UniProtKB/TrEMBL annotation:
Keywords: Iron, Iron-sulfur, Metal-binding, S-adenosyl-L-methionine. Residues 1-168 form the B12-binding domain. It comes from the Bacteria. Residues 212-452 form the Radical SAM core domain. PROSITE patterns: B12_BINDING, RADICAL_SAM. It comes from Candidatus Magnetobacterium bavaricum. This is Radical SAM domain-containing protein. CDD domains: Radical_SAM. Its cofactor is [4Fe-4S] cluster. One of its GO terms (molecular function) is catalytic activity.
Amino acid sequence: MKILLLYPNLYGINTLPPAIGLFTAILKNDGHQVRLFDTTVYEGLYNSSDADKQKSENLNARPYDDSLIRQYTKNSDAENDFLSLVRNYKPDLIAMSATEDMYSIGVNILSHLDNHRPPVVAGGVFPTFAPELALKMSNNKIDMLLIGEGENTLPELCRKLERGDDISTIDGLCTIKEGKLTQNCLPKPVDLNIYPLPDYSLFEESRFYRPMQGKLRRMLPITTIRGCPFTCGYCNSPSQRDIYKNSDFDFFRKKDIEHVYKELKHCLQNYRADSFYFWADTFLAWNEYEFESFCDMYSEFKLPFWIQTRPETVTEHRFKRLKEVGLLRVAFGVEHGNEEFRRKVLLRKVSNNTIIDNLNIVTSLKIPISVNNILGFPTETRELAFDTIELNRHIRSDGINAYSYTPFHGTPLRILSEQLGYVNKNSLATSITNPTMISMPHFTKKDIEGLRRCFVLYVKMPRHRWKEIEKAESLTPEGDAIWKELKDECLSKYMHYDDNEKHDDD
């Protein structure tokens, strides 16, 4: 059977998706032919900007040379290229894997198919939590939806389609007939240790490179954990655990260290990785035995690696060990600086002192960190947002991300946003790098976006410059000119990219 995988994504979001690598390997092992259409390599797709370069422009990340990636950039028409591939390859099935913020890109690509197209199935977190909306937004170009994890559902669907068998009883499959959805039961969470090693051979060469600390690295993803033990209100991982709470299954799972080792060797030997990023919502959700086993195992490689974790998981011993075996950089989710707001709205029970003290442990070990922040949460005010700025001024990070809040389906804050009338019930979440889609009368979209682009200036520059910075929030030609001047000054005088910098007035 011929299968065409469709991966809709924006240029500059260059993280390799482990799911596509895994589906490719599983389907090939079942004897199918597999091709991939990945929109990431198309610059300017639907007027989008370069996400990684945009972060660099806004001082959220270090500047870097992207000439290697640009060698593989496609400037042709993505829709025409997709149609050409479909005509020449003649797939028996098109399978789209998409996050909610990229779903509309996939639908736009599919909308150019005529009525003689092959059947199309779409899967991901978005169809899992909003199948009716996923169907409504599909423009009659999607015939089936996968809910839950698809590692068992997709190959079973392919086998039955190939044999001409009935597909109506497959766990995790939603079939669509005459515009109506029939939803089967969820598949059980998969065992992370029984599947073949991922196959990334279908990706363009440029997709193996990712900017990190001012340079491009041939950085491969390694999945260690699925799910998360924490219950943040803006994340869908807790909801994925909740849908299994009345069953004997748990969505939160850890891959055996032995299997992690095999995947590391595989990516080194087959894809020439020079570094890794470990794919886990909270890397340090391991217990002590698992953590020590990982460090002992990884000491054989000692290649640079990136992780993300929570401030609460930091101990000096753990980060000394991680540094010994190659830790390059850590991303910490802080998200908001007001303790009460963070506890009541974001459902995060951690103090500012814990965040500051624990992140200081990491930076004192000369380990570079980046901090993720979100602006424009439902009910947030400008004053509350400045609490986030204030907290960041006490953290010695050389990467400060300020994203707009994105109300993904399957999260408690999406429900709150709809209840308060801040977001249309039938709207799709947009990319976190885009301006906010939340409409609040007391903290407008322009207010949020203006503050977002000046976030790093407020954090890094002296407090007596804040009145000047406020003028740069204005999204006007005059405000743009002030912002550019301040940004250049901040880059040259205050972005030292070391962990010992201090503010002039602190």
